[in-house]
């Protein structure tokens, strides 16, 4: 099966896709990225992902060498070349390569754009794939988590610790409160009330979270936007996390403490179902 990547103006075989060892993404983690889901060959909620990319780029004072509709055309071409039906779409923009390893921005910036796709089943998952275990771990990241930075070492280490403990995701915490998942946003449900931390610089504004909040509103569910403690999470009746690559993922245990009855919660599954329908709506839109 074709495995093509896009690197700075060219579609190339993945094995031939290279960037300079002087790329500031490699040297400094100086870049930002996006991950969007793909279903039936269509990007899910891509406009929102590109809007967030635009903001991340602005925050790090970097300009994409093309406009966003041109970028979307390249994205669709890559999906077509790789025949991706279901999976994820990754892209990043770094500040490119410069002559010397100076921390300051190079005088002439030549941003580097890299994109690739991955096959992954994300829709209609079997029940046993909807039982995530979570480990909590201190949030060791910098203070601008609203920027989708490619510098992910704190999450890499935290997620590896969770993985070693047999867990699927880590929930990071700071001052006793859960901030977010290693690569997702965290929710708990108590007395039929959904609780999730407010967006600010302490977390990434998840695109899936935004869509789920709209669904919560549409369904007239009660939502409280506030931080919650780890202890509150242990006692929640349901818990879940959201991201472009897992949608709405039910949590059945946190630090080995069983959540609810140890099965995906009813309200969580309802939201997952609604989100899957939302994801399908992009196929219909593209056929119009
Ligand atoms: N991560 N918080 C963090 C720290 C994340 O890395 C992500 C996504 C999210 C959820 O955002 P969204 O709903 O827009 O995917 C929240 C992606 C999936 C990743 O790094 O692979």
Describe the protein in words.
This protein has 288 residues and is of the alpha+beta class. The chain has two domains: 4-119, 2-Layer Sandwich (D-amino Acid Aminotransferase, Chain A, domain 1), CATH 3.30.470; 127-283, D-amino Acid Aminotransferase, Chain A, domain 2 (Alpha-Beta Barrel). 30% of the residues lie in helices and 29% in strands. The protein contains seven helices and 15 strands. The protein has helices at residues 24-28, 46-59, 68-82, 153-164, 207-218, 230-234, 266-287, and strands spanning 4-7, 10-13, 31-39, 42-43, 86-94, 112-119, 132-138, 169-174, 177-181, 185-190, 193-196, 222-225, 238-243, 247-254, 257-258. The strands form two sheets. Strands 7, 8, 9, 10, 11, 12, 13, 14 and 15 form a nine-stranded mixed sheet that branches. A six-stranded antiparallel sheet has the order 2-1-6-5-3-4. Strand 14 (247-254) and strand 15 (257-258) form a beta hairpin. Helix 5 (207-218) crosses helix 7. The longest helix is centred in the C-terminal third of the chain and has 22 residues, at 266-287. Bound molecules: N-(5'-phosphopyridoxyl)-D-alanine (PDD). The site of N-(5'-phosphopyridoxyl)-D-alanine (PDD) has 14 residues, from helix 5 and strand 13.
List each distinct ligand once.
N-(5'-phosphopyridoxyl)-D-alanine
Low-pLDDT residue intervals, each spanning 5 or more residues:
none
CATH topology grouping of the largest domain: D-amino Acid Aminotransferase, Chain A, domain 2
Q: CATH homologous superfamily of the largest domain, by name?
A: D-amino Acid Aminotransferase, subunit A, domain 2
As a percent range, the share of helical residues equals 25-40%
Class per helix and strand makeup: alpha+beta
Number of domains: 2
Number of strands: 15
Strand content: 25-35%
Q: Describe the biggest sheet?
A: 9 strands, mixed
Distance between the termini: 29 Å
Rg, Cα atoms, Å: 19 Å
**Helical region count?**
7
> What's the CATH architecture of the largest domain?
Alpha-Beta Barrel
3D shape: globular
How are helices and strands ordered from N to C? Answer: EEHEEHHEEEHEEEEHEHEEEH
CATH class designation of the largest domain: Alpha Beta
Return the average pLDDT rounded to an integer: 97
């Amino acid at each position: 099966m074709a495995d093509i990547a896009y690197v700075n103006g060219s579609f190339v075989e993945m094995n031939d896709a290279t960037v300079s060892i002087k790329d500031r993404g490699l040297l400094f983690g100086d870049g930002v990225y996006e991950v969007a889901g793909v279903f039936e060959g269509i990007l899910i909620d891509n406009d929102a992902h590109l809007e967030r990319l635009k903001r991340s780029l602005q925050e790090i004072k970097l300009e994409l060498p093309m406009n966003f509709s041109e970028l979307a055309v390249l994205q669709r071409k890559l999906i077509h070349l790789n025949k991706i039906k279901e999976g994820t779409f990754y892209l990043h923009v770094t500040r490119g390569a410069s002559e010397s390893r100076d921390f300051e921005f190079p005088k002439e910036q030549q941003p580097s754009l890299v994109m690739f796709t991955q096959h992954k089943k994300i829709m209609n998952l079997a029940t046993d794939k909807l039982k995530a275990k979570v480990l909590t771990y201190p949030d060791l990241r910098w203070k601008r988590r609203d920027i989708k930075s490619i510098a992910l070492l704190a999450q890499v280490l935290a997620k590896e610790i969770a993985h070693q403990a047999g867990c699927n995701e880590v929930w990071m915490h700071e001052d006793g409160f859960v901030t977010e998942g290693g690569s997702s946003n965290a929710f708990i449900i108590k007395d039929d009330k959904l609780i999730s931390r407010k967006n600010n610089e302490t977390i990434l504004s998840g695109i899936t979270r935004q869509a789920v909040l709209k669904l919560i509103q549409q369904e007239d569910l009660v939502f409280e936007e506030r931080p919650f403690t780890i202890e509150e999470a242990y006692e929640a009746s349901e818990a879940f996390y959201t991201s472009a690559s897992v949608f709405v993922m039910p949590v059945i245990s946190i630090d080995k403490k069983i959540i609810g009855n140890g099965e995906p919660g009813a309200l969580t599954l309802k939201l997952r179902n609604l989100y899957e329908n939302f994801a399908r709506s992009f196929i219909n839109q593209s056929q119009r």
